[in-house]
């Protein structure tokens, strides 16, 4: 496992880049808007929360930041967000799928009314809308020569956390989307894709567990730490990889804990013959080679 140290010279390459970010009015998204603009990037961001979104955009000024009120679960509203970026600044270089919500209630609770379907709002915001953002991001960045796609997963994207069942399923889904995209988007379209997997980060989303976290003396993050991880992933196309991580810096997962950044996907790949078995690993490698970019699924429709 490699600890990734953010590089000031690589972060400086964000100067002049155009970033599209979802969920930028509060928490990690707002910290990322602040960090990227402080590095010289222009950011267009959306949120449902127009009060905080507009306040942040007007504080930073229209040369640096544009706020668009949009619901990420509405494809048309996300499309309009990307069109606005193109109209304002002529290109899209960085796309960050950040908007997310946490689960309310317990769909497996014994007092649940089983005659009614549970709410799938978490899946809609955290996975369906992230697929929308990724699709639009790839489509718009391909038009202007490539870029970087950064998807917010979570520590719940690679571990189970009982109680937030749908949240964890959604974040595993985001992680899986990265694993599909990485072998095509970077080599064929010039778009690096990486996931960010923060542990507990002090934002409104996790008020409910902050006390438990602190009592257990577990390492926590500030929103600005996660913003730094996102900015680091946003520079993935620049530099010669990252010390300790396999090259290129594509298809990685950055676990962020106690304000430190750890690349965790390389070892999962490297140790596959151990956890999956040598023969199974070889067979699945052959299958991957045979399926290539996956066009076979199109041609069979
Ligand atoms: N805080 C943590 O401990 C933590 C840990 C791991 C991953 N994450 C992930 O980081 C991301 C940001 O979370 P945060 O902690 O900053 O939460 P937050 O609640 O502070 O901010 C989330 C933002 O997303 C916006 N949003 C929610 N639904 C939306 C919708 N339908 N359309 C547009 N905007 C919408 C909210 O209005 C809010 O501004 C999320 O994807 C979250 O799952 C957070």
Automatic annotation (TrEMBL):
Does this UniProt record's set of keywords contain NADP?
yes
Entry's Gene Ontology cellular component terms:
cytoplasm
| PROSITE patterns reported in the protein's UniProt record | ADH_SHORT (PS00061)
Q: Which InterPro entries match?
A: NAD(P)-bd_dom_sf, Sc_DH/Rdtase_CS, SDR_fam
> What Pfam family is a match, any one?
adh_short
**Zinc keyword on record:** no
User: Which UniProt keywords are given for this protein, alphabetically ordered?
Assistant: NADP, Oxidoreductase
**Which terms does the record give in the GO molecular function aspect?**
oxidoreductase activity, acting on the CH-OH group of donors, NAD or NADP as acceptor
The similarity annotation says: Belongs to the short-chain dehydrogenases/reductases (SDR) family.
Identification of the protein by name: 3-hydroxyacyl-CoA dehydrogenase
Per the UniProt record, the source organism is Dacryopinax primogenitus (strain DJM 731) (Brown rot fungus)
